[in-house]
């Protein structure tokens, strides 16, 4: 047996009722009935007089019941698209210290974005008095550090972002609709949204990746919906429609509003019409003259629609579909195409015959004004919005179900700020490490805990009518707790060799000036000094070694101090002169180094004094050097030889001798004569001539002594 459907399109000018049958995926229009409102009980799609509207609904219902001998209990209806609001918004989160993100983290980030959109909508001046509900959202893209990414799961970086588009509907729209139905003895079987209804029957999901605008031009308003990226991306409304044209006709031809409306329909259909104005004059109007007279109003309507499309879409769409009775306004499609810089064949009026799964019948209305009513019947059954009641933290929440509802939807409807449900991070500690301020972070706060009907749940779990939700704030993180070892790492040890002996040197760790171990816990304000290297000075101090790495060798000469640097004691590091501030590394060699003790001759050289004079001569045909000392060095009154060793801190005196020339008798200090061999008188010969003992010698003299 075929399923019967009853649908109502409650518009600004009229109410249309339809009876339809569904056979699997095909639909058949059984009958329809339309009644116009007798008073202005509807304004811009919103019911302003519930009693009046309910009477019209009841008339439509009774007409169809009587004609088909049936009783209608429930009905499919649509909420006006003009009441919908869409917000496109980005939510970001710092994840520099965040562990790998999971699905729960991402869902909370999406919810935060929806709540930001909800807050923006609530704080907009003209919307402040309206109570809006989110009826769905779609993720446009995820980003990581400014780059688009397919998924944030297990990603790491600096900042994660999600961009969503959320759709909102005011509560008053649905509540007034429900009240009008209830007064007409009807129950709400299913609810849809007018733009979604039209799009559903004209644009299957496979076509929604195209950037197309659908414009439902009614009597009082023109509703706009845009598709792109596989979804409905925006909704809008222009407070101008068919009535604007009717009013222009009324003004031009002096007709009352209803008469002008009838005239508009007749001349559009027959291309000619005869009317009688309010003064009683009758005239016949030809279609070209009619077009000329209403052109300014058509131009204004086309401009408003095109402007709103650009405002919503940013750029002209690829195509525009026109539905609704007002779409048949002469020249309107052409002028919209001009305003959007589109070819005229890219803006088209779509009639009922464009619905692929609707059976074609003789009684089928073919005009574009029936697209939305038929779409309501079909979309309300295929994609209905049901109301359910859920208890959230002991408070009853009512949601309308445009999709499978989740815990996240309940949190949004309850106005619970997801961001505030996360536990706060634990208190951080500030310490100084080697004179630099370092922050020790506390542990992360935990995500909120959610219970659905007493069982643990996640934000993406499905909820049903009558469910009970309890959500509690996540546990706050713990304050920073860290030991010196956890903060610094392993304590290093190196080996230093001093005079061939091995010394084990440990890194230095102090906290607040006191020696500390690696298991010492750090506290806020601690001053940590850690040195993994040691200087030469620290090494000498630690092992109580004389830290005078260079000891001067000094003597006192005639009561004046004299330093002999070449004979001072020094500390060598790897065979180079050591410096106290020099850092030591593992395996370094330290050696005390001192030269041999100096002699008197070294001292005289340091003083720059000439110690002796020499004269080169030949004695008995052999070279001989005569030497006469010019200084005499005394230590404690004792004369020192030039090769005698002197000691550190010796007190010495130096006596200078005269510089008399060498004479012949000086030779006898450098030779030895055996006078016992003499046979007579000894002869002294100088350069072949006899000489005396006191004769002055000259360099290279030839000396002979004959015994």
UniProtKB/TrEMBL annotation:
Residues 5-202 form the SHS2 domain. Gene3D superfamilies: 3.30.420.40. Coiled coil: none annotated. The keyword Cell division applies. SMART domains: FtsA (SM00842). Keywords: Cell cycle, Cell division. This is Cell division protein FtsA.
